[in-house]
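[SOLVED] Need 3D model of a three-part complex

Original post:
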Amino acid sequence: MSKHPTIAEHLESSGVSRRNFIQLCSMLMATAPIGLSLTSKKSVLQVAQAIGKTKRPSVIWLHFQDCTGCTETLLRTSAPDVAHLILDVISLDYHETLMAASGAQAEAALRSAMAENAGKYVLVVEGSIPVKDDGVYMELGSKPGVQVLKEVASQAAAVIAMGSCASWGGIPSADPNPTGAVGVDSIITGKPIINLPGCPPSPYNLLAVVLEYVTMGKLPELDDIGRPRFAYDRVIHENCPRRAHFDAGRFAASFGDEGHKQGWCLYKLGCKGPVTHAACSLRHFNEIPGVWPIGIGAPCLGCTEKNVVWKMATFQTVPIHLATPPDTYPPIYTSVGGAKVGAAALAGAVAGALGSATYVYSQRFQSSHEAGVERIGADANHIAGMDEAAKHPVQKED
Amino acid sequence: MAITRRDLITNIAKAGVPVAAVMSMSTMASAGSESTQAESLPVPNAAVGLLYDASLCIGCKACEAACNEANNTPEDISGDRLHEAPVDLNVFTRNIIKLYKPTDGSPSSFVKRQCMQCLDPACAAGCPFQALYKESVTGIVRWDGGKCIGCRYCTISCPFSVPRFQWQGFNPVVTKCELCSHRLAKGLKPGCTSVCPTGAVTFGPRTVLLLEAKRRIKNSPGRYYQDRVYGEKDNGGTQALYLSRVPFAMLGLPEIGPESVPSSSLRWQERVYKYFALPALLYVGLVAVIRKNLKGHEAEALEQEKETGLRAQQ
Amino acid sequence: MSTTVIKLPGTTRPRWERAVPVYGVSVVNPFFIGLIVMALLALVLTTYREIVGLGPVSGMNDMFGWGIWKTFNVVVLTAWGSGAFAVGTAAWVFGRKRLFPLMRMALLTSMLAYACGLCLLGVDVGRPWNFYWVFFPWNWNVHSPMAEVAICMSVYAAIPLFLENIPPVLERLWHFDVRLQPIVEKLEHILHKFFPLIIAAAYLLPAMHQSSLGALMLLAGQRVHPLWQTPFLPLLYVGAAAFMSFGCVAGTTMLCCLVWKRPMDREVLDEAARITAWLIAGWLALRTLDLLFRGALITAFRFNRYAGIFWTETFLIGYGGWLLYRSLKDRQPRTMFLGYTISSIGGMLYRFSPTTLAYMPGPKAMYFPSTIELLIAIGFVSIGIAAFLLMVKLFAILPAPAQEWRDMAHYFKFRKPYISWTRYFNFGFFGDIEPKESD
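Solution:
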């Protein structure tokens, strides 16, 4: 077998039957989120063919200021076959939690993985990176984390920032951020970076990105802060199963009250669903429907959003920016136009100025007339000045 | 000596009597037929139109979406920046479904509003350089951007408030339904009528649609408001015809009467300016009077010049 | 104020004998600078409007397609400033010779009102580059009141009104340099030859377009409230233009005389006031009869804002007219000035109502001008006023007794003898027919 077997070859050598492989592919097609090229394929065989031909890409997984929750979420699949098989689709060449090696052997493994797949491996980063005081607050093998990241990322084909910590700083970056924790894209430039915020994010976000890369050779469409659109396009509120309660005005007022027991909307308990971009309301966790924060009665914290979680109080209600889609019809006559305060004030000021000017000048007419001056408006000085001037003939001829 | 009022009136009358006689006779002749103006308005040969039966409409708004697609207009998401839900006709919306829902529980109704393609359109009557014009064959009222100066007089004169001006940008257009002329040219039907699931809006020659409307009224007596087709005679006749169970005025279709807006409002304007005769006559009279006055004025100016020793002012 | 009565040489009342430039007053003063600032602001905002379109800068919307630029600066202000038409017709057609001294003021105010109005019209229309169609008569829609207004106003402002305003300029050129005099005299002669044709057009065209401005709203039909909508709208509009413009010309002349200390000619002003009062009386009668015979008068007695506006404008016009009539009796210039002002405001309200206040395109539609819209409108009016202040000092426009011309000579001879480059005011070229010593 070649040093870099294709996925089909690898699976065969692992003892996975072709039937199981096709089953995997059909499961991938069914479970992969919409928005990936994978789901637009017409038949399972096409997918199997595409995946089968690909060489397993090398993946290097680095941990920084993390809790390892993002790795844990990847393993939290109730059907271990799926995760295991999917992990067979990639070659995980360096992962501090999962690999057996440690110490100098681990460092050697990293170096050889980088050397063998230089320019082709995908770097997955978990955890934020401290940059304050030259990055002394987190070191890998006596090297500051910042330096390690830069070194490994320099040879990577793409960087995936797994979790909120790697995407924008996460928990370590909460005020007062004593270590200067930042996300990957504050340090690395010039490489395609995909942010998968969430604390932890849904494992399917990572798996789908990896699949897309593996099968199509390209990364999914990103929004303006590097999050893949297929997962982070909409806010929780838009697809929330409790939305009908929100629309009808049925809210749980406190934990454990009747409404809470009935599963009513948690908006008044500070649910950040309306301002949090994530797919949790569609794709729950641990592959069990209903296993997600709102589903168990805990208001969403907004763990994907930098400006929400740890910036807004847990029970603070959020403004709703996206209104309910108008399923009402426009009335026969629409209201349009109206006065603005500034314009009305200006118009009033102009009218007032003109009115008072009229009054003032009309009074001056009056006073001139009452003075009995026959020649209205003319004043004595003018005439006197002329007489004075007449006494002094012009000095120079023109 | 200045001309007296008597002289002026006599001058004008001398020249004006024959002209006035001719004009009054011609207007009296046409006055008799004003009550049946709708019949006397020329209907184009192949006049096409729409028949909208509000009692069949279910408010699905497929016509709104199809219209946007047929005319290649971007969606109007100005409401909440997310959903395409226009509240009125505008530069992106050539037809719209509105709902009349009375609060007292009497029957409600949808209404589809778009250009009525009037037989004597007020918008075209007011347009200064004929940017809005009625096609002679099909009778569709169309807008020509090459002639429009953007004065928005059409928005003022249309009794149905149909033409909409584009308020954004430096190259504004005037938008309204033109019965998908580009599709008609290819033998297709307008976008809205192609997708209506219940057949509430249908397309065809005006004569055929009128017969169909009358047939429906006859087959279901008492179903339709006043057993009447709106647009048969209203506003002098329109090519978009309406059937409704509720009063038309409730749907925003004004009761204008059988005389079209241009003919009822501009009658005297047309009479006074006919052949430009009166203004020309007046001009001749004015020149004569002013010439007389000018001579007197000159004489006085000369006198004043001598008196004051200063050059006379014109 | 002293109560001594100052007697002029001679016991006769002051008469306006010729137009004299306003001298001894500097053009640049705080008011003028304020006007220029407003004008510049308007120009900047106009550039912004050209870039972003009409929506962001104005309060116009789909229901109210016309904002104050059309309905006020054009429909109202050009009527108020149509003095060349009204005063000219009274003077030249109906032979009211006493009004001749007001002619130059009328012509200048008209020129400026039309210029500002038409420029703002150019700003208001959405696709002005297509206006070249005005040169293709076969493409005109001859039945359209809008076509009539656009074409007639442009032709009027460009040709007759412009030509009528040339004499003061030629006069100044005549005084400017002896060498220019033959050319100027030749031009004046040509102008004089065509004078009847030009000013006949100058009275016909405004009659046509001031009435067509009224006909514009005829086409709106039921959308204008019945208190205003009538087949007589064009006639009422041109009548309103007539008495308003008298107010503009005579009122402005009175104000200028007050501010720049000129005597006022009672006979001229009385004549103007008399004519205006009669015009107002006739106009009110026509309006009342029209309302009566259409059966619309009853709507004036309802308690809504339309009735309120109707009574306000009727009261203003009527009271103004009555004040003018009374000023003939009580000899008070204040009464006359207020009469002109109040009747003008009433006339403005009347002409403005059918386009905006009494225009009902929909029960929930509203319109109010935006701040930028107001600023641009004010700015264009400021340009007009500033231009007026400048012209009245450069050219002989404001009427005065002949003695004022000689006073001007004295002023420049003794106060500013060193100003020889302003030959207009140089004593040696002061327009005496024969060079002689002035008294």
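Edit: The interface with chain A takes residues 59, 79-80, 82-83, 85-88, 96-101, 110-111, 250-252 of chain B (CB under 8 Å).
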